[in-house]
Amino acid sequence: MRILIVGSGNYVTGRGTDSYGTILPAIYEFNKEKKIVDEVVILTTSKKSAKLAEKKNKKIRYLSGHNLGVKIVVKKKNNFKFSTNHAYSRDGIFCTIIATPDHTHYKLAKDCLKNKQHCLVVKPVVTKLSELKNLIKLCKKNQVYGAVEFHKRFDRQARILKDKYDSGIIGDPLYSWSEYSQKKIVPEKFFKSWISKNNVFQYLGIHYVDLIRYITNSEPKKVIAIGQKNYLKGKNINTPDSIQTIIEWQNPQGISFTQTLLLNWVDPKNTTAMSDQNFKLVGTKGRIESDQKNRGVRIVEEGSYIEDINPDFCRVYGTTPGKIRWEGYGIESVKTFLKDIILIKKNKSLLKSLDEVRPTFKEALYSTAVLEAANYSLLNNSVWKKVKI
After folding, report:
1. Residue 324, Cβ neighbours under 10 Å: how many?
2. With b meaning 16 or more CB within 10 Å and e meaning fewer, what string describes 40-62?
3. Do the Cβ atoms of 23 and 53 come closer than 8 Å?
4. How far is CA 121 from CA 67, 207, 256, 286, 292, in A?
């Protein structure tokens, strides 16, 4: 099995941080279990990023105690070619994981699917419904699997929320409310080179849009979004500091309810967690609440500030090099994709059933439709925008 990763940034290797990312550690953990990955090829855009990726990979290999063959290839920007020279498909399964800026996803995913490669794309898969529909057609034509890395679906809290909702304990849904924010280092440092083509709803809010779809199986009907440009504008960064969005949904029983999302990515750098997030779903009989920041583990170190850590997303467990493990719902998301394509190879009929249980490209129609409508609203004086899929 050979795996191609397009991109080598923070989510792949932890570049720019003291951590090691999620995607590459997940593949190490997957291969320690399955022992079927022959090679991982990482495509990046500069010699500098390649060197940083290699440095991170060496550390991950040392900590994992597992020798995974990783090859790093430098390709010029906007020139990623999925040719037979890079397919490495002469043996076993081949798949691609795309972890690049949002505006590059469509072309990369299209090239991948045309070459009949299974594909996992970090969220959002694309920002336009027309593009996503084209990708879905390619998946069907070439009998390949397209999935979105919506890792919150694998969070134990989200799974509990879905189980409780399905049991009917809250009655008919009335409204959902979430506040989700991250440190200003994200737009100022991690995304600075392409920040004008992104916004905080696209980056953070899309997770909770997908969660409502996952939990309630509802369809979006209309969207309104309001944004503010204050702090980042003063840093010559052209994107809103904060966006507030209201979405009207309708569940399969025809009952309408609203979702409110309050988002920002200008939290202070010394706040106690990278992500401050929570989720509420209120109905006619009860409510479900999930505090996804305060998960019960707080670290206080002398000479440092207090840190509320998330032990469930992507954490290193263990302290002895060669014996540690990466665990969490971020890891599980990537591993599940890889396990799915092994099953698909054995039984292609599985492709038809994945839409019911995974965040496939087809399932992403709902979140993409909301994203497109929210972006339209932001650019048009915050008007209500009807959603059509």
Report:
1. 18
2. bbbbbbeeebbebbbebbeebbe
3. no
4. 25, 14, 31, 36, 24
CA 164 – CA 114 distance, rounded (Å): 41
Q: Give the tokens for residue 365.
A: 């129609």
Q: Long-range pairs for 87-91 at CB < 8 Å and ≥24 separation? A: 87/4, 87/115, 87/117, 88/2, 88/4, 88/39, 88/41, 89/2, 89/117, 91/2, 91/38
List average pLDDT for each run of 10 residues in the chain, which is 389 residues long. 92 92 98 94 92 96 95 75 47 82 94 92 98 98 96 96 96 98 93 89 97 98 98 95 98 98 95 94 97 92 87 93 94 97 85 93 98 98 96
Cβ contact 147:337 at 8 Å = yes
Angle at 241 between CA 281 and CA 179, to 5 degrees: 15
CB 367 within 8 A of CB 210: yes
- 118, 75, 83: which is closest to 100 by C-alpha? 75
Q: What tokens does 334 get? A: 């990537």
CA atoms within 13 A on the CB side of 374: 30
* Cα gap 204→210, rounded to integer Å: 11
pTM: 0.94
Q: What is the pLDDT of residues 265-296, one digit of tens each?
A: 999 998 999 999 999 999 999 999 999 999 99
Pairwise CA distance, residues 272 & 375, whole Å: 30
Tell me how far CA of residue 368 lies from CA of 231, 359, 363, in angstroms: 28, 12, 9
